[in-house]
């Protein structure tokens, strides 16, 4: 497969823009460190607790709307064995942010914790806290690996670049700006990334719908044409399994340090709660383009496209239906915009996962257990961050 040179140039320009934004934000972080009278390492972890409300809304939304989110949503809607009714991720993520804002944001922010493990460390001691940290850190590594895999598969489909090359490039950019500015760099790059996701995905929708190979999705929602209706069906016997999956995502998503890192970085409890509620609405809204792409893919006669037969589902490629649809149903320049949206989504979640894991290790394990008198955690945090990143890439 030949490399798509214009697409590669566009992605490189996007990465340069993100890196430049991260470097600019790191300067702001340095200024905050000079003003800080307490532990300067907390500036990197919770941003000096003065995060702007709008920046907070954007960074929480961008963290939840990752590569796995937009790819999986399209996959489930496209899958003839599942359909829209089983695409619970947008609803679950929105509900999780509402739950977090309603029940957890106020007590966590009022007590000025640094990480989500602080209450456990204070109440139960270091031993139990360290045991509880293991699954949390593993989850962060696995999440980073998942979204990196989504990026690698997408870039290969559209640009013809080997997955490992795109993963290394994206990881290198993310680790550089995060080490330079900590939460400040992550938050301000999230703003750029979220805007890019919003514009790029919605830009692709009209081209996908107007492709001659695609049938009206209103018709295929309830009538079988090329495959089962994309709305799907939920039998009474499967209701409890549906609820179980929904509630699992709702409550497990509240257990991520990525969420509490933003809550603890806000300037007040009121801002923390408003941030959660607004991000919940945006998170669901940004799942709509992926739902539409999945529905369009289910309504497409793939024999009329450059993809041909058998269909992506029959080839076992439903997991990458979003980049396949962009590649074969959109003009080249539009598909490049789509790949930019996925790259932005991946980086916005990946840097958050790695920052969260690095913060928990440096503050709860290294500082509070191993070296209680240490003043600065910057280098220890950086070393763990790099190791975390290497493991995620390797997986």
Quick structural summary:
This protein is mainly alpha-helical. The chain contains 16 helices and no strands.
Written account of the structure:
With 395 residues, the protein is mostly helical. It has helices at residues 5-35, 41-46, 53-64, 67-78, 89-110, 118-124, 126-159, 163-209, 217-222, 239-253, 257-265, 269-285, 288-298, 321-329, 332-370, 378-394. The radius of gyration is 21 Å and the shape is globular. It starts with a helix and ends with a helix. Residues 376-386 and 388-393 have low confidence and may be disordered.
Defining key terms:
mainly alpha, 395 residues, 74% helix, 16 helices, disordered C terminus, globular
SSE layout:
Blueprint (H helix, E strand, L loop, with lengths): L4 H31 L5 H6 L6 H12 L2 H12 L10 H22 L7 H7 L1 H34 L3 H47 L7 H6 L16 H15 L3 H9 L3 H17 L2 H11 L22 H9 L2 H39 L7 H17 L1
Share of helix, binned: over 70%
C-alpha-based Rg, rounded: 21 Å
Give the N-terminus to C-terminus distance in angstroms: 25 Å
Secondary-structure element string: HHHHHHHHHHHHHHHH
Per DSSP E runs of 2 or more residues, the count of β-strands stands at 0
Mean pLDDT: 83
How many H/I helices?
16
- Give the overall shape, derived from the CA principal axes: globular
**Biggest beta sheet summary:** none
Q: Which ranges are low-confidence, i.e. pLDDT below 50, for 5 or more consecutive residues?
A: 376-386, 388-393
- Structural class assignment: mainly alpha
Which range does the strand content fall in?
A: under 5%
């Amino acid at each position: 497969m030949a490399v798509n040179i214009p697409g590669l140039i566009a992605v490189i320009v996007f990465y340069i823009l993100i890196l430049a934004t991260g470097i600019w934000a790191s300067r702001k972080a340095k200024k905050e460190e000079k003003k800080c009278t307490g532990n300067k390492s907390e500036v990197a972890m919770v941003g000096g607790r003065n995060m702007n409300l709008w920046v907070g809304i954007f960074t929480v939304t961008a963290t939840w709307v990752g590569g796995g989110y937009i790819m999986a949503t399209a996959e489930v809607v496209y899958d003839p064995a599942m359909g829209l009714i089983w695409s619970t991720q947008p609803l679950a993520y929105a509900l999780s942010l509402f739950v977090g804002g309603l029940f957890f944001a106020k007590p966590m922010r009022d007590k000025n914790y640094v990480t989500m493990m602080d209450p456990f460390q204070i109440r139960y001691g270091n031993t139990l806290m360290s045991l509880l940290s293991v699954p949390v850190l593993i989850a962060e590594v696995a999440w980073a690996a998942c979204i990196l895999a989504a990026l690698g598969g997408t870039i290969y489909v559209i640009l013809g670049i080997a997955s490992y090359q795109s993963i290394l490039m994206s990881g290198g950019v993310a680790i550089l700006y995060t080490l330079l500015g900590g939460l400040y760099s992550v938050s301000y790059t999230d703003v750029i990334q979220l805007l890019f996701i919003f514009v790029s995905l919605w830009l692709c929708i009209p081209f996908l719908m107007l492709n001659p190979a695609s049938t009206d999705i209103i018709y295929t929602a309830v009538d079988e044409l090329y495959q089962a209706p994309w709305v799907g069906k939920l039998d009474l016997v499967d209701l409890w399994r549906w609820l179980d999956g929904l509630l699992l995502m709702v409550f497990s998503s509240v257990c991520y340090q990525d969420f509490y890192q933003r809550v603890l970085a806000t300037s007040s409890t009121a801002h923390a709660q408003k941030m959660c509620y607004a991000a919940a609405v945006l998170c669901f809204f940004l799942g709509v383009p992926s739902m539409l792409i999945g529905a369009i893919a289910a309504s497409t006669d793939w024999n009329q496209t450059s993809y041909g037969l058998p269909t992506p589902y029959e080839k076992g490629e439903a997991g990458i239906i979003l980049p396949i649809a962009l590649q074969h149903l959109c003009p080249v320049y539009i598909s490049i915009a789509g790949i930019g949206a996925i790259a932005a989504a991946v980086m916005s979640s990946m840097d958050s996962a790695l920052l969260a894991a690095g913060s928990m290790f440096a503050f709860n394990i290294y500082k509070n257990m191993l070296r209680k008198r240490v003043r600065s955690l910057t280098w220890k945090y950086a070393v763990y961050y790099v190791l975390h990143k290497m493991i995620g890439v390797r997986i």
